[in-house]
Amino acid sequence: MNQHENVGPDDLFGSLYADLRGLARRELKRQPSFADLGVTSVLHQAYLKLAAGGGAIFADRPQFVAYTARVMRGLIIDEIRRRQSQKRGGLFHLTALATQHEHDLADPRAMMQLNDALDALATVDPDLAEIIELKFFRGISFAEIAAIRGVSERTVRRDWDKGRLYLHHALSSEPAGGRDAAVLA
Amino acid sequence: MPPFSPERWRALSPYLDEALGITSDRRAGWIAAIAAHDLTLAADLAALLAEHEELKASHFLERLPDWPTPKLID
After folding, report:
1. Residue A129's CB: how many other CB atoms inside 10 A?
2. Which residues of A touch B62 (CB under 8 A)?
3. What is the largest CA-CA distance in chain A?
4. Is this model's pTM higher than 0.80 or not?
5. CB neighbours of residue A159 within 10 Å
């Protein structure tokens, strides 16, 4: 999107707000435990993190969308950490784990390990990590990712498989012996 | 199989690009051709391709997980 070239996050955030709102709504729908965060809240937190980055400049829309996706993943992980911390606070909170709401929260440890493995992948092969992030954490289709990245859908699918292989191997190699890869299936 | 070092992953990466682009029935021959000059590489790739079949069968990361309900204190 040429009109977005070399502009700051304020301009981009405004012009892409509808896109981002759709992403946030999709994310919250996929992770119902976080629905109480609210779409607008997620977006505004994402914006504040972007703005706090010191006037970051994005070369184009794909770069901005990918960056925002990383920020939003971080928000979800932060929320998991916060809720884990609350649960460790006492018997009252542990008892509350039996509720249906907490069942939806699933196993935070597996998500945290996936998050760590994804960070490791990002240092070795950032393109693969970005595809995993866009597909799994954001729910963007292969066709959309191909359009964003300017490559063929076949390439995206191959890289998705390759990235999944890295993560599956990393999680299966954890001392726990593979349980965490299994629960992500 | 231990976790990848970054160096090992980078060495395996171009082979995985090729392997994931060919059909499953041709992979045995492809592995055999690599084994003719590098047995360790062929063994690693064979293990990874088997793991790839496993993760496809289990739909790894294809949907949000149905994680177990956390347990209460013992």
Report:
1. 21
2. 185
3. 55
4. no
5. 24
Q: Which residues of chain A have a CB within 8 Å of the CB of B64?
A: 30-31, 106
Predicted ipTM?
0.83
Summarised one tens digit per residue, pLDDT across range A76-117 is: 777 777 777 776 654 333 333 333 333 333 567 777 888 899
Tokens of A181: 């890869």
Nearest CB partner across the interface for B20, out of A158, A182, A183: A158
Exposure letters A160-185 (e unless 16+ CB within 10 A, then b): bbbbbbbbbbbbbbeeeeeebbebbb
Output the DSSP codes for A99-110. Answer: SHHHHHH--HHH
For chains A and B, what is the number of CB pairs under 8 angstroms?
A: 92
Say which of B10, B60, B70 has its CB closest to residue A164. Answer: B60
